[in-house]
């Protein structure tokens, strides 16, 4: 039998040690990999919303997660806001009476109460939506858009870096015959300066302009605190969108808000030229903990809807469906149970504006959403 020399034995021992070390290192690496979280997988996508979808198909694909909820029970807060609004309404009076939709305030209240009673059962049995409610279609379809609550950097005092005023409603706004001062007169000529009307001073006039478009938002103050502001009035001039202004000047390719903001950021010397071409101007008030709708309550993400109250009255329950833009998928189906709780100057007849919230996804959806889809007003059977 061959006996290894001391040198060859040392070599073999060294080799064994290296192998053990490599094996141990492999186990450590495998354990570390096992401890790492896998990349977050996207939830299974629902089938696209069809413009002429049946209520039965809609309900079969309806899930609370698409509205940011874990359970349909979470609709209770929005229901209570609508019921609070209806307290002062006479039950026998008509909330709406037009071809295709007729409902008294009493019927609307009964519908809201019925839905609230059913909430504990809906997760397990969503077919109750069609069993207990009449689905009145909004014909021929709904044109959907979205709005969100922007956050604007501001200061309570004018100081370097914070020089653009955000104005409260002037006391003489209603006393002017015809329209009030234009945007250019207010911002460039200082028609409201030195009257103590400044709520705050913003860092960026473009942020304030888009805050006006949304009608409400929050101010992130330079001391780290945050306050919410809401629409308090408008100067009476017709609104002209910045997208239209910039397209007319041949400045945009797509025309969406993201492209508009980037162009304005890249061309600060032309900001006033673009913004002042829109004579409309919005005034604000400090109010509450979030954006407040026409009912006087804070609106709820993916549940509160802005409607034309002469077409879909405040207090209505609306089943709505639309394929929304999504930063990860491109598009995704959104089927939801919403509540008509807000209005808007641009919301006419068969248009619905969905309140999307205040985060980055809300910004994205609200900026790009422009699509058609089905909608039904629910009435208790």
Measure the end-to-end span: 97 Å
What is the percentage of strand-forming residues?
15-25%
Strands of the widest sheet, in order across it, are 3-16-12-13-11-14-4-15
DSSP summary, beta strand count: 16
CATH superfamily of the largest domain: RlpA-like domain
Radius of gyration: 28 Å
Tell the overall outline: globular
Going by CATH, the architecture of the largest domain would be Beta Barrel
Domain module count:
2
Structural class, judged by helices and strands? Answer: alpha+beta
Count of DSSP H/I helices: 11
H and E order: HHHEEHHEEEEHEHEEHHHEEEEEHEE
Instruction: Give unreliable regions as ranges.
Output: 1-41
Q: Can you identify the CATH class of the largest domain?
A: Mainly Beta
CATH fold assignment of the largest domain:
Barwin-like endoglucanases
Q: Briefly, what is this?
A:
The chain is an alpha+beta fold. It has helices at 6-35, 55-60, 76-86, 105-122, 128-132, 183-187, 205-214, 242-248, 257-266, 271-275, 360-368; strands at residues 94-98, 101-104, 133-137, 142-147, 151-155, 164-167, 198-202, 216-221, 226-234, 282-286, 304-306, 317-326, 330-342, 351-355, 371-373, 375-380.
What does this structure look like?
The radius of gyration is 28 Å and the shape is globular. Strands 3-16-12-13-11-14-4-15 form an eight-stranded mixed beta sheet. The chain has a six-stranded mixed beta sheet with strand order 6-7-5-8-9-10, covered by helices on one side. A two-stranded antiparallel sheet has the order 1-2. It is α+β, with helices and mostly antiparallel strands. It has two domains: 55-147 and 294-380, Barwin-like endoglucanases (Beta Barrel), CATH 2.40.40.10; 151-286, Barwin-like endoglucanases (Ribosomal Protein L25, Chain P), CATH 2.40.240. Mean pLDDT is 88; it is low at 1-41. Helix 3 (76-86) packs antiparallel against helix 4 (105-122). 30% of the residues lie in helices and 25% in strands. It has helices spanning 6-35, 55-60, 76-86, 105-122, 128-132, 183-187, 205-214, 242-248, 257-266, 271-275, 360-368; strands at residues 94-98, 101-104, 133-137, 142-147, 151-155, 164-167, 198-202, 216-221, 226-234, 282-286, 304-306, 317-326, 330-342, 351-355, 371-373, 375-380. The chain contains eleven helices and 16 strands.
């Amino acid at each position: 039998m061959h006996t290894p020399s001391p040198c060859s034995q040392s070599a073999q021992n060294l080799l064994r040690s290296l192998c053990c070390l490599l094996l141990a290192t492999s186990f450590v690496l495998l354990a570390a990999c096992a401890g790492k979280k896998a990349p977050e997988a996207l939830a299974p996508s629902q089938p696209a919303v069809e413009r002429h979808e049946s209520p039965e198909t809609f309900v079969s694909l309806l899930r609370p997660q698409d509205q940011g909820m874990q359970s349909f029970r979470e609709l209770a807060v929005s229901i209570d806001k609508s019921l609070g609004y209806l307290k002062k309404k006479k039950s026998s009076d008509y909330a709406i009476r037009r071809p295709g939709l007729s409902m008294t305030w009493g019927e609307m209240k009964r519908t809201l109460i019925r839905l609230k009673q059913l909430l504990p059962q809906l997760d397990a049995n969503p077919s109750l939506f069609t069993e207990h409610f009449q689905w009145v279609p909004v014909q021929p379809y709904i044109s959907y858009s979205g709005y969100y609550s922007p956050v604007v950097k501001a200061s309570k005092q004018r100081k370097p870096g914070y020089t653009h005023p955000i104005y409260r409603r002037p006391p003489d706004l209603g006393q002017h015959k015809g329209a009030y001062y234009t945007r250019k007169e207010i911002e460039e000529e200082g028609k409201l300066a030195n009257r103590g009307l400044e709520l705050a001073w913003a860092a960026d006039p473009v942020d304030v302009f888009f805050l006006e478009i949304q009608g409400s938002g929050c101010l992130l103050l330079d001391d780290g605190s945050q306050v919410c502001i809401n629409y308090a009035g408008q100067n009476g001039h017709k609104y002209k969108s910045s997208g239209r202004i910039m397209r007319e000047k041949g400045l945009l390719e797509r025309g969406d808000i993201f492209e508009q903001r980037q162009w304005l950021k890249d061309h600060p010397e032309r900001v006033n030229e673009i913004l002042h071409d829109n004579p409309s101007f919005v005034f604000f008030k400090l109010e509450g903990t979030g954006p407040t709708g026409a009912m006087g309550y804070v609106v709820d993400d993916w549940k509160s809807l802005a409607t034309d109250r002469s077409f879909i009255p405040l207090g209505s329950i609306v089943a709505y469906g639309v394929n929304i833009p999504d930063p990860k998928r491109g598009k995704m189906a959104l089927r939801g149970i919403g509540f008509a709780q807000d209005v808007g100057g641009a919301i006419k007849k068969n248009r619905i504006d969905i309140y999307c919230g205040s985060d980055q996804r809300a910004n994205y959806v609200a900026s790009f959403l422009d699509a058609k889809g089905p909608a039904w007003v629910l009435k208790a059977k």
